[in-house]
Amino acid sequence: MLDWLKSPVLAVQDFFLLAGRAIGNVARRPHYGSDIYLQMDIIGVGSLPIVIMTGFFSGAVMAMQLAKALSQYGAVGQVGQVVSITLVRELGPVLTALLVAGRNASGMASELGSMKVTEQIDAMRALGTDPIQKLVTPRLIATCTVLPLLTIIADFVGIFGGFLIAFFLLNLTPSEYWSRAWQALEWLDVAQGLVKPFAFAFAIALVGCFYGLRTTGGTQGVGRATTQAVVVSSVVIFFLTFFLTRIFVNL
Amino acid sequence: MPNQEPLVLEFENVTVRFEDSTAVDRLSLAMRAGETCILFGAAGSGKTVLLKTALGLLRPAAGRVRVFGQDITALRERELFDIRSRIGVLFQEGGLFDSLTIEENVGYPLANQPALRCSPEEMRRRVEEALRFVELEHTLEKVPSELSGGMRRRVGIARAVVTDPRLVLYDSPTAGLDPITAFTIMTLIVKERDLKNTTTALATHRYQDGSVLANFRYNPATGTLEPGGNGHAGRTRFLVLKEGRLVFEGSQAELEASTDPYIARFVKREE
């Protein structure tokens, strides 16, 4: 009767087995340093332009929208404060993670998926390498390292975008904007803004690799795995941010 | 006289299942050192699954698999690496890593098998030797996408034999190739078997492949194949798989004499 539950439950179990092994491998030899470095370049440097663009425009747009709302209370001067809190706590981490999910969870799923359907994963195992150690762990380490850094950049560029709007359109002085933006931030906000991308990195790398390694059914299967990886990692990011926010607002 | 050579590969009532299907069903077989096994079967009959189970890439749901006398059924992935380093394998489409050069591809087992690690100079020498064996020594710096299908298959053979394995498994080595290229591939497989005396298992659906392996030997003086001679026919067995079950096991003469319509499909009788 509950047969329909079997395959999703099995999939979740497989996911956590993969996650456990990928994390366990971090401390285990052999280490594939050059693969980690290569992935950091692909994920980090590769995502930089789009993360900067998105960060900038989201900060600028938010400043414009908020200025309108705040002007009703005569509090346009507060715009720096609101922009910086929103970006650092929530929008910076989530937007960056969603962009990296779109770029790299899909990339991982399609790359590993093509390797799976052309028997390269089997060949790897037959020739003495653990595919999780060689493929998944480097991607996990790389994503966990670069996603917080990308988020910091997105936050800063976003606040800067807000500043341009405040300075040119709202006629605030730079010190008015920057001092409020800076003073608004507490340590807990910064902590929240860095814990989130770290957690999202797990979701992106592990979900991307998980769907890649599960690919069956030729090139069509690779397409399917790629789509699933992006959809599932995006949804997981929203779940995680919900729960993490819940924890942080109660602290 | 019964064959007294040590057992290289042994399947004992092996069943391999996937989520909703049985790929190999209670199959038993044994291969002794120096033997050649030719495995016929239609698409989806379980040939590839059988070879992957022998490598420990797939785990049987029931039964035992022994390789070089060691039971691999319950071994963990890391414990399997030693056994796998003694087996060469050519995957169906070659299974080459398309992000690596040919040199890195062929050298991959030497660089990664803990049991086979060697110095970079030694590695380079063995990679060149393996590529010379398949007559592709000029492709070291290329990547797989720059090679033709037949050449990729040959690089796959070089990678399978670079470690000097005692047992080599070939999964449909000639699938999708034109007859001339297919014959080149089969020549290389016979050459590897006869020069290094390796135990050979070949999965295929082409009768010619099995026939070449059973009836020809490699002549190192001329570099070509010539008929018969050193008794390979006696050490060659033909097996036929149907829906995961072994439906035939015997010599080429017995195979050709079979009246079973499924088995007869694989035999091309001289008209």
Describe the structure.
- The complex is a heterodimer of chains A (251) and B (271).
- Chain A is mainly α.
- Helix content of chain A is 86%, strand content 0%.
- Chain A has one domain.
- Chain A has helices at residues 3-24, 33-71, 79-117, 120-126, 131-168, 174-184, 187-213, 218-249.
- Chain A is elongated.
- Chain A starts with a helix and ends with a helix.
- Chain B has a domain at 98-152.
- A 6-stranded mixed β-sheet of chain B has the order 6-7-8-3-11-12, with helices on both faces. Chain B has a 4-stranded antiparallel β-sheet with strand order 2-1-4-5, covered by helices on one side. In chain B, strands 9-10 form a two-stranded antiparallel ribbon.
- The two termini of chain B are 34 Å apart.
- Chain B has 271 residues and is of the alpha/beta class.
- In chain B, β11 and β12 (245-250) form a beta hairpin.
- Chain B has helices spanning 47-54, 77-84, 102-112, 120-133, 149-161, 179-196, 207-215, 252-257, 261-264; strands spanning 7-18, 21-32, 36-41, 62-67, 70-71, 87-90, 167-171, 199-204, 216-219, 224-227, 236-242, 245-250.
- Chain B is built from 9 helices and 12 strands.
- The longest helix of chain B has 18 residues, at 179-196.
Q: Which percent range fits the helix content of chain A?
A: over 70%
Largest sheet report of chain A: none
Mean pLDDT of chain A: 93
Q: Would you identify the regions of chain A where 5 or more consecutive residues have pLDDT less than 50?
A: none
Chain pair with largest interface: A-B, 14 and 26 residues
From the alpha-carbon coordinates, what is the Rg of chain A to the nearest angstrom?
21 Å
Which bin fits the share of residues in helices of chain B?
25-40%
- Structure class of chain A: mainly alpha
Topology, number of strands of chain B = 12
SSE string of chain A, helix = H, strand = E? HHHHHHHH
Q: Please state the CA-atom Rg of chain B, rounded to the nearest Å.
A: 18 Å
Along the chain, the helix and strand elements of chain B come as EEEHEEHEHHHEHEHEEEEHH
Number of helices of chain B: 9
Strand content of chain B: 25-35%
What share of the residues of chain A does DSSP label as strand, in percent? under 5%
Q: Summarize model confidence as the mean pLDDT of chain B.
A: 88
Tell me the number of helical segments of chain A per DSSP (H or I, 4 or more residues long): 8
Unreliable runs of chain B: none
Specify the structural class of chain B: alpha/beta
> How many structural domains of chain A?
1
Major beta sheet, strand line-up of chain B: 6-7-8-3-11-12
